[in-house]
Design a protein that fits this description.
Layout lengths: L9 H19 L4 E6 L3 E2 L14 E8 L8 E5 L7 E3 L1 E8 L3 E2 L5 E2 L8 E3 L4 E3 L12 E8 L7 E3 L6 E6 L12 E3 L2 E2 L1 E7 L4 E8 L1 H4 L11 H11 L5 E8 L18 H10 L4 E7 L2 H5 L4 E2 L2 E2 L9 H17 L3 E5 L15 H16 L5 E3 L1 H5 E2 L2 E5 L13 H9 L8
Parallel strand pairs: 17-18, 17-19, 19-22, 22-23
Antiparallel strand pairs: 1-16, 2-12, 3-11, 3-13, 4-10, 4-16, 5-9, 6-7, 6-8, 6-11, 12-15, 13-14, 20-21, 24-25
Length: about 425
């Protein structure tokens, strides 16, 4: 219907807009959603032994532990690093019973615009319809994705810390347990679980490198930084409930993209996607800079992690932090800086030397004293060896001498003054 405002009487125009008001009101009343679990998307690298790169008429079952629960959930899938569309034929969700199993009676269909299948456009995400699937805070859920044909490329999170099961041929999305398949340490296409927003709920985004991703922790135990912080905040008596979501990528750098796809793009490049645009985000914890200092001149096998003549200065790294701070504040988010932990003794040749240690100390001094961040968590002060400050304290060190172990991550979280999140 077309209305010519130049000749239509004002009373008719006013009446027409009154008729539209219920539609406008309904649109305004659509419920908001917040992230309760995330995994930062990454491109994949060639690997002849990786079963996820050979999918064809198979089902993938992967898991996510939600932080805040809700009466409904939504899944966000992404084909961000795909050059062509990817068809997912069936998706289901249930309560996880180990890597392969789903609790009896808990399997629910997941639909997209009312359909059982979804075609993920190249480079784009897809958000599911709301699913009437009540979950409590801390629940581990299982997501099953059926691929009727081979996806030309995959978007994954390469370091999932949980076994992912790949079925024999066929749609196994409704199977109570997937048997006889293969396993992977990476998850694919799933990058977020959402729950309804409610008054008094906030989302803390932990964005960073392998120290956020959980390297050094015991697999299958959810003892990474994000889960440790979520559990501690849950015990903190407050009217606010916190989701803590993990946007860590092992190998991530602050300033530059990594030398392989699975190390991800720079924090500066992914900050909007993983922090600013994260549904419900109110606070961002930044754990970046370790690899910017360590990569130049270092080698992982035959892979040169960064050219030795491309080493950043302390001022370069500080400038990167200042950009993240500015961008966070423009969007009304609080941003929390974290000092860089020691690396002497790391098993990667060339990762540590005296000059790199001087840069680390200079950057840490700025983080502690500049007051540029809204708050600071002093990782370094917690896990360094007082007798040898360029090394991790042995009881907090994982075998690679770069990442904390379970006890080290817990000590960092236990040191956090939780009032910084008020």
């Amino acid at each position: 219907m077309r209305i010519n405002l130049a000749i239509t009487p004002p009373k008719i125009i006013f009446g027409f807009f009154l008729l539209l008001l219920p539609t406008f009101a309904k649109a305004r009343q659509q419920p908001a959603w917040i992230a309760t679990w995330t995994a930062s998307p990454q491109g994949s690298d060639p690997d002849p032994d990786e079963p996820l790169l050979k999918l064809d008429n198979q089902t993938v079952r992967e898991r996510a532990r939600v932080t805040l629960g809700g009466d409904q959930i939504r899944l966000r899938l992404t084909n961000e690093f795909g050059a062509t569309p990817v068809l997912i034929g069936i998706v289901t969700v249930g309560i996880a019973d180990g890597a392969a199993g789903v609790a009896a009676g808990s399997i629910h269909p997941v639909r997209f615009n009312g359909k059982d299948s979804v075609l993920l456009a190249a480079g784009a995400p897809a958000l599911s319809d709301p699913i009437d699937f009540p979950v409590k805070s801390g629940t581990e859920i299982s997501i099953s994705l059926y691929f009727p044909k081979h996806p030309a490329s995959i978007t994954w999170h390469s370091f999932s810390l949980k076994k992912v099961v790949i079925s024999p041929s066929g749609d196994r999305t409704h199977d109570a347990s997937i048997q006889g398949g293969k396993e992977s340490d990476s998850s694919i296409f799933l990058d977020a679980v959402l729950v309804p927003a409610e008054k008094g709920r906030r989302v803390i985004v932990a964005l960073g490198d392998s120290l956020v991703d959980g390297d050094g922790t015991t697999h299958e135990k959810d003892l990474d930084l994000s889960n440790d912080l979520y559990r501690r905040l849950k015990k903190f008596h407050s009217s606010t409930q916190f989701a803590v979501v993990n946007e860590g990528i092992a190998g991530s750098c602050l300033l530059n993209d990594a030398p392989v796809n699975s190390f991800g793009v720079s924090a500066l490049a992914r900050f909007t996607r993983d922090a600013l645009a994260n549904p419900g985000a109110s606070d961002v914890i930044v754990v970046e800079g370790t690899n910017d200092i360590g990569f130049p001149g270092a080698k992982l096998g035959d892979l040169v992690l960064a050219p030795p003549d491309n080493a950043p200065t302390a001022e370069d790294i500080i400038g990167g932090y200042q950009q993240l701070i500015t961008r966070a504040h423009v969007h009304g988010l609080r941003i929390i800086g974290c000092t860089i932990t020691p690396s002497e003794g790391v098993v990667v040749p060339g990762y540590h030397n005296d000059e790199k240690e001087r840069i680390r100390q200079a950057v840490n001094q700025w983080i502690r004293t500049s007051h540029a961040f809204d708050a600071v968590i002093d990782f370094d002060a917690v896990v360094r060896d007082p007798a040898h400050p360029s090394q991790l304290l042995p009881r907090f060190a994982s075998p690679d001498h770069l990442h904390p172990n379970d006890a080290g991550y817990q000590a960092i979280v236990d040191s956090v003054d939780l009032t910084i999140f008020k």
